[in-house]
Amino acid sequence: MSSKGPGLFSEIGKKAKDLLVKDYGTEQKVTLTSYSDAGIALNSTVVKKGGLFSGDVVSQYKHMNAAVDVKVNTESEVYTTFTIIDILPSAKAIASIKLPDYKSGKLEVQYLHEHTSFTSAVTLNQSPAIDFSATIGTPSIAFGAEGSYSTASANFLKYNAGVSLTKPDSTASVILADKGDLLRVSYLRDLNWLNGGTAVGEVTRRFSTNENTLTVGCSYVVDSNTTVKTKLNNNGNLGALLQHRVTPKAFLTVSGAFETLALEKEPKFGLALNLKP
């Protein structure tokens, strides 16, 4: 599929959100990835959160323009996703289902072109929900909206809108979400003096509660194998993360969360190990 154009609506503000959210966690997690000669990738994850253990195994097989993903977890749930790329020029089809809940089946079509993108998804049951999104623009500026409509209640479950501006070294986005109740403004900039790191600022406004939240964060590339990330909001919530490449295919991630305005509370720590033999 073409990589040109404005991209999907879900990509608006994604880089800023990833810097503030991705890889942060307070659980202990080990992930092992392996590949077979037949082209099958296996990804096994075990997570300990509190005193409970959970895990899943994901297998993926790719052949030409098709891919099949199967995920089995400790709750005896099976997620299956079947993807076909370029069923039509610039179009992708994705079919998914979670068992034993056979009513969870969903069919999605994505279309990406030079100046527009469109997605449509429908649940495969008697009263389907219809999800859709559309984006117009260029790789530099994009306007988009998304929504979800329930045929059972004849109501919109959600509708969001957003705009993004992208330059070689910075990205800005404005998103109006939660049916117009939440405004999120973010700005991300690459900083050469952080050795290839990035800084981000995000402001959210919840109109129903008159609540404002300011969050700032940054990443710093210590060396070719080590990256440090940190974030802080106006409520005193501080997060820090260190990710180190132990071997060419193994990553160790250590993260922590602290409440600087409530020092009597104990900090929370997470540990993740990702191995790819």
TrEMBL record:
Print the keywords alphabetically: Ion transport, Membrane, Porin, Transmembrane, Transmembrane beta strand, Transport
Q: Does the keyword Aminoacyl-tRNA synthetase apply?
A: no
Provide the protein's localization.
Membrane
A GO CC term attached to the entry: pore complex
Primary location group: membrane
Which CDD domains does the entry mention?
Answer: Porin3_VDAC (cd07306)
Q: Which InterPro entries match?
A: Porin_dom_sf, Porin_Euk, Porin_Euk/Tom40
Q: Name one GO molecular function term.
A: porin activity
- Which family is this sequence assigned to? Belongs to the eukaryotic mitochondrial porin (TC 1.B.8.1) family.
Could you tell me what this protein is called? Porin type
What is the organism of origin for this protein? Parasponia andersonii (Sponia andersonii)
